[in-house]
Amino acid sequence: MSKVIIIRWGEIYLKGKNRGHFEKMLENNIKNSLSCFDLKFVKISGRYLVKDFDEYLIDDIISKLSKISGIHSISVCDIVKSNFEEISTKAVDIAKDLTGTFKVETNRADKTFPISSVETSQMLGGEILSLYGK
After folding, report:
1. pLDDT, tens digit (0-9, with 9 covering 90-100), for 13-33
2. SS3 120
3. What are the CA-CA distances from residue 21 to residues 5, 14, 131 (Å)?
4. Can you give the pTM of this predicted structure?
């Protein structure tokens, strides 16, 4: 299973037409910080992806990213196909060793996915609860 790192940024721009300038500056800072690693860096719809890296480097990559001003959050994710069955299988696998209460929250970045985010969250929560709930 391959992994990606999602980088989200917060309010990094001021009023006016300088948003692009600050986004480019952040992008350059990230690229410079990660230049010592063999990986791919991709910009997609309001976030950046770091992919095609050796998984044993995750902690080192996150350490570098955590020092860059303007980054709002960093998430390590597994790549699965964009269909409910694969997403459900992965969610159930992630939840298998967890205990206590839980909440499933999804964000459907791909708006062509046929199920809304709320419905996906409900369905995944139901799957997990039916397997591991009381």
Report:
1. 566 677 778 888 999 999 999
2. helix
3. 23, 10, 49
4. 0.81
